């Protein structure tokens, strides 16, 4: 009997442990299944509202005219309901225009597992901020270059630098000339060069439509006059006259203001331009300016429209778009000049600078220069002219761009062999796209597609 009692106790103990293990595993399996169902329901909520926005692009109230959240039952194909998803919709606006929509979806299955999961996505048109570089011409990235972020050219690419993301060309082959470092004219692949990570190179790839990303300057001017900041043309005459190169000097301040100066005179410096067809006279260095005033950036419309040439520097306090364009005078195409460092005052800040013509780093730019922002040379080139070496303008040390460069013409900030002891321009250059601006760019940053899509997705 004693033996029976001992073995019975052991049996009961083992049976209890096995039962407890089975029950725990069953609960764990139910919870795991419930979590999977909850995530599927949350994603179903995102897909439902993407469908809704495709039919009603500006409706952020699910057709009810009332604020959310909106709880919607998801039908089970075999009958009944598999669960529900709850949607919270928030529209992001600037200057009275809806720029993106944030959708938060929480899925809850009806299987009794008492679980839920929440995902959040941003629905918007993808913009140029998703790239480190977009160039509408053939381009040579030198061996000193470090590029973090997608790099695309509608022409050919010679990539001697280190690119740590995709490098794409719209051409299957192109003619490499001496200006791209080829000793004789040679037909090369769409992307070629001595740079590492060639497995990331791809060609031919679809073109980025520069006409499609063209800024609607007339509309932007109207919006700036109504709700942003607008500055009328101060320069006069046509290209070649000294008064044509006047404009405005914008110095952004961390306190949410911008100090504006009128530029009445610039130095006329003989240079070798980035593109041979451009003028050999540089007017980027300011010699005379007077303070116009200090202005508070409107809280609801971070748009500054300058119908003239513009010099930009300072600490960007919020999401701001600066436009330099002339929609009144035929044949007048303002440029933007980068005269000093551009930094941000916090994580919520960002800059998009759009120039109708060039975006030029000036002759007296800092030896070590930091530029944060999206820089768009709509009809011209992004770069720095060659000033002759040695001089007070050459050479320069380091250029770091955190953001995006978009250039209609060939870019250039370094001149190989430009100095007797080495190269002119910036000796080292680092480019990295800004992940924050890729999902939340400043207002009116040009899009690369007319199709709306999820530009960000994460689980909360």
Structure characterization notes:
The chain is of the alpha/beta class and 460 residues long. It folds into two domains: 28-124; 128-449, no CATH class. Helices cover 15% and strands 42% of the residues. It has three helices and 33 strands. It has helices at residues 2-55, 217-227, 435-439, and strands spanning 70-75, 81-94, 97-109, 117-124, 133-135, 139-141, 145-148, 151-153, 157-159, 162-163, 167-169, 173-176, 186-189, 191-192, 201-202, 229-231, 247-252, 257-266, 269-270, 281-282, 286-296, 303-306, 309-316, 319-324, 336-344, 350-355, 359-361, 368-377, 382-383, 396-407, 414-419, 422-432, 453-459. Strands 5, 7, 8, 10, 11, 15, 16, 22, 24, 26, 28, 30, 31 and 32 form a 14-stranded mixed sheet that branches. The chain has a seven-stranded mixed sheet with strand order 21-18-17-23-25-27-29, with no helix packed on it. It has a five-stranded antiparallel sheet with strand order 1-2-3-4-33. Strand 1 and strand 2 form a beta hairpin. It is globular, with a radius of gyration of 29 Å. 43% of the residues are buried. The mean pLDDT is 90.
């Amino acid at each position: 009997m004693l033996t029976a009692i001992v073995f019975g106790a052991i049996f009961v103990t083992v049976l209890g442990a096995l039962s407890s293990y089975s029950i725990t595993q069953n609960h764990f399996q139910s919870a795991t299944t419930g979590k999977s169902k909850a995530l599927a329901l949350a994603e179903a909520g995102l897909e439902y509202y993407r469908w809704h926005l495709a039919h009603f692009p500006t409706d952020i109230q699910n057709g009810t005219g009332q604020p959310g959240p909106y709880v919607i039952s998801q039908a089970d194909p075999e009958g009944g309901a598999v669960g529900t998803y709850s949607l919270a919709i928030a529209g992001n606006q600037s200057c009275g225009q809806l720029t993106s929509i944030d959708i938060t979806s929480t899925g809850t299955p009806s299987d009794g597992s008492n679980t839920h999961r929440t995902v959040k996505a941003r629905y918007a048109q993808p913009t140029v901020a998703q790239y480190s570089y977009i160039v509408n011409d053939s381009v040579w990235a030198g061996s000193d270059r470090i590029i973090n972020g997608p790099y695309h050219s509608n022409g050919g690419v010679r990539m001697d630098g280190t690119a740590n993301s995709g490098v794409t060309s719209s051409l299957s082959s192109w003619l490499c000339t001496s200006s791209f470092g080829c000793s004789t004219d040679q037909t090369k692949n769409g992307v070629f060069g001595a740079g590492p990570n060639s497995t990331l190179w791809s060609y031919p790839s679809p073109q980025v439509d520069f006409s499609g990303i063209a800024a609607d300057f007339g509309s932007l001017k109207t919006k700036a006059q109504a709700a942003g900041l607008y500055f009328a043309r101060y320069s006069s005459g046509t290209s070649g006259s000294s008064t044509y190169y006047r404009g405005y000097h914008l110095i952004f301040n961390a306190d949410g203001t911008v100090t504006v100066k009128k530029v009445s005179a610039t130095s006329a410096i003989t240079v070798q331009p980035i593109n041979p067809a451009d003028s050999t006279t540089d007017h980027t260095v300011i010699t005379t300016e007077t303070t116009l005033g200090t202005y508070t950036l409107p809280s609801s419309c971070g748009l500054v429209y300058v119908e003239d040439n513009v010099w930009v520097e300072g600490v960007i306090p919020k999401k701001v778009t600066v436009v330099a364009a002339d929609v009144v005078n035929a044949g007048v195409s303002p440029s933007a000049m980068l005269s000093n460092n551009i930094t941000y005052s916090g994580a919520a800040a960002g800059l998009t600078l759009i120039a109708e013509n060039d975006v030029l780093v000036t002759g007296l730019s800092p030896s070590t220069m930091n530029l944060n922002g999206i820089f768009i040379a709509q009809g011209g080139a992004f770069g720095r002219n060659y000033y002759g070496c040695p001089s007070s303008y050459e050479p320069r040390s380091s250029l770091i761009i955190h953001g995006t460069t978009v250039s209609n013409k060939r870019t250039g900030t370094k001149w190989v062999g430009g100095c007797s002891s080495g190269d002119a321009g910036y000796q080292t250059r680092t480019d990295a796209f800004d992940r924050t601006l890729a999902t939340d760019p400043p207002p009116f940053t040009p899009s690369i597609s007319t199709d709306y899509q999820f530009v960000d997705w994460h689980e909360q």
